[in-house]
Amino acid sequence: MQGNEACAEGAFYAGCRFFAGYPITPSTEVMEIAAARLPKMGGVFIQMEDEIASISAIIGGSLGGQKSMTATSGPGFSLMQEGLGFACMAEVPCVIVNVMRSGPSTGFPTGPSQSDVMQARWGTHGDHPAIVLTPASVQELFYETVRAFNLSEQYRMPVILLYDEIVGHMREAITIPAPGEVEVIDRARPSCAPHEYKPYDTYHGDVAPLAAYGDGYRFHVTGLYHGADGFPTNNTKLIEETGQRLLRKVDNNRDKICKNEELYLDDAEIGIFAYGVSAKSAKFAVKELRKKGIKAGLLRPMTIWPFPENAVEELSKQVKTIIVPEMNLGQIVYEVERVAQGRCEVKGVLRADTEPIKPAQIIESITGNGFFTASSKMSELMVDRDMLDG
Amino acid sequence: MSTQTEETRPLAKKKKKVPFNYSPYVRGGKLPHIWCPGCGHGIVLKSLLRAIQLSGLSQDDIAMVSGIGCSSRTPGYVDFNTLHTLHGRALAYATGVKLARPKLKVIVTTGDGDALAIGGNHFIHACRRNLDMVVMVYNNSIYGMTSGQSSPTTPQGTTSTTGRYGSIEPTFDTCKLAQAAGATFVARGTAYHFQELEKVLHEAIMHKGTAVIDIIDACPTYYGRFNKYKTPTEMMEKIEKEGTVSVKQAEKMSPQELEGKLLRGIIHKSDRPEYLDEYNRLLERVQKK
Ligand SMILES: Cc1ncc(C[n+]2csc(CCOP(=O)(O)OP(=O)(O)O)c2C)c(N)n1
Ligand code: SF4
Fold first, then answer.
1. Residue A106 and residue A78: Cα distance in Å, rounded?
2. Residue B142 pLDDT exceeds 60
3. Which of the ends of chain B has fewer CB neighbours closer than 10 A, N or C?
4. Which residues of B touch A60 (CB under 8 A)?
5. Closest partner residue to A40 among B63, B103, B286, by Cβ?
């Protein structure tokens, strides 16, 4: 099964019955599968006129009570930013898939990249929380899609699934768990009398229960700062409180949201911090380095936002160097540097020529002199793409 | 929660007038509204509430969706399921709500800038799909909320903060646009002809499919001031009363007499299949296999 297909399957498993989208490479298959499968399940599939409409429609669909999703890539994701902010502010659960492609603007549509990691965090305006998951294999994509829905329902906010073209188009055999085997979380619904319902009443915690339009709880939703009852406010204290609460929802639950994979970290002297497809090369590199007697280890975040600060901090206290391979010209490497605070050296292994980072490139950055960037001796470093599946 | 009382019975059929009771529809504590004195938005809202009552819809079964603008503040004041979205995006949100909850009657309140400029693409595609919803375009020929810039319906030659020397851009005719794009109910009303507007809105609510109503409204604060109307009343009379003719009146008028006037009333109606009906037929078809 292909990555994009596994993503759609994961969504259906999680209970997604509403998909609105607009085609763009390399995410299109997610939408095509939704178009084929959802009508059979009695769900809603609609092809909208653009990405702005798509994210708007899924927010509307979610408020109508359905678990909703859209999928896009680079330029489409840029168009969705305002809607993403709305979903944060209005606390509407939904899942947005961004299969990263290469370059600003139309760039290189069929080429992979990891260059939307900052857009996924800071693309929309204003202060807001973000949950962004970075799966690295087809099977994991399935599970992480389910987790994306669970997190969005639990924290009442948009969750972004961020992976690159290689993961999206990679084919691997996967097992789809039986219904009930993997936990599926649904948003809390109000239990109070309709006239007592306040959609942002956080009396019982930072996340309020969410009614669906048409269930008898008539409520107001706005993208303006609002009080517990959902109505606009210009009360500075309330505005500050709401902003803080939105951030707190994620900050206070970092441990539950962050999920990392670790490989040979126990005695590592050199740490590699890699996510998504680059982690596949990193894994291979770590194994090769160990064969050479070099104590390398891998920290792979499956949640890139909130940034796994605790894990990186620990790593920075333990190792001499942290290597950050990523398919962009420097994004997450600066986050690692920020958290490491000079406790160790932090080096990026970067490339943005639509070719994946090769294990040899990572190895060279450790054993050779200096580290490689986009244009470095590519012919010498070529590794077959298939190897990435290892 | 207030319930409907006898006082809320429809006026239309009664000989003896009972004052209309707006209170069940208005959210407690949310008034006064933000609209300027003399603004037509409040009159339009009154006509809408009366039309809703006439249609017998329960408040639970209505979802009101808006974009951003003065007119888009409407949902904040009324006790329905309400959604105040992003500038221009009301129709796309409304599409999501309706598809997720088909039993809801979706009413969109939007401005001329909201619907036809930033939301122009959503507007034509909503009309094309013919999903069951009522789209009320509060057309005041200007951007009210951002203090008086030109909009796609600003008449050529008139003044705004971004059309200081007279707008040179041709204007959109909301109704022609809606009809061409495929809306199956197209009408025009004005805040001045508020009783007529109530009837048109009632018919729009009863219609199954996308119903677009272009509502000629006046923004005295900006459009009126820039274009030298002395009072809101003068503005209403010139723009809404003299600037429009009913579809019936128009039949007897010559092309010369009709020049510069907008048609009022139901302009177009057809019974092309509604989107959700089509979708449900599709579901039946694919689920049989
Ligand atoms: C993306 C975006 N662009 C611009 C604005 C600023 N803005 C707010 S309301 C408005 C125009 C409103 O005019 P109209 O839709 O005609 O409604 P009115 O206020 O006249 O009722 C604009 C441009 C915004 N909120 N969002
Ligand atoms: S600015 Fe114009 S449209 Fe807005 S409330 Fe005032 S009069 Fe009405």
1. 11
2. yes
3. C
4. 65, 83, 92-100
5. B286
Q: Give the pair of three-digit tokens for residue A42.
A: 């009695």
Each residue of B260-285: pLDDT tens digit? 999 999 999 999 999 999 999 999 99
- Contact call for residues A142 and A10 (beta carbons, < 8 A): yes
Distance between CA atoms of A129 and A228, rounded to whole angstroms? 19
In chain B, residues with a C-beta closer than 8 Å to the C-beta of A214 are 60-61, 63, 81, 101, 103-104
- Could you tell me which of B242, B240, B200, B217 has the C-alpha nearest to residue B44? B217
Measured CA to CA, the distance from residue A91 to residue B187 in angstroms comes to 36
Q: What is the pLDDT of residue B12?
A: 53
Pocket of ligand 2 (CB under 6 A): B 35-36, 39, 41, 70, 140, 144-145, 219-222
Handedness of CA A340, A341, A343, A345 (dihedral sign): positive
Per-residue pLDDT tens for A292-332?
Answer: 999 999 999 999 999 999 999 999 999 999 999 999 999 99
- Residues of chain B contacting A86 with CB distance shorter than 8 Å: 85-86
**Residue partners of B68: CB distance under 8 A and separation at least 6:** B84, B85, B86, B87, B88, B114, B145
Give the chain A residue nearest B121 (alpha carbons): A49
Helix A51-63 × helix B120-129 angle, to 10°: 60
ipTM of the complex: 0.94
- B1, B65, B94: residue with CB nearest A195: B1
Amino acid of residue A42? G
Q: How many CA atoms lie within 13 A of A285 on its CB side?
A: 32
User: What's the predicted TM-score (pTM) here?
Assistant: 0.94
The pLDDT, as a whole number, for residue B15 is: 59
Spacing, Cα B21 to ligand 2 middle (Å) = 25
- Residue B234 to residues B153, B157, B189, B229, B241: CA-CA distances in angstroms? 20, 19, 18, 6, 10
User: Average pLDDT for residues A232-250, to the nearest whole number?
Assistant: 97
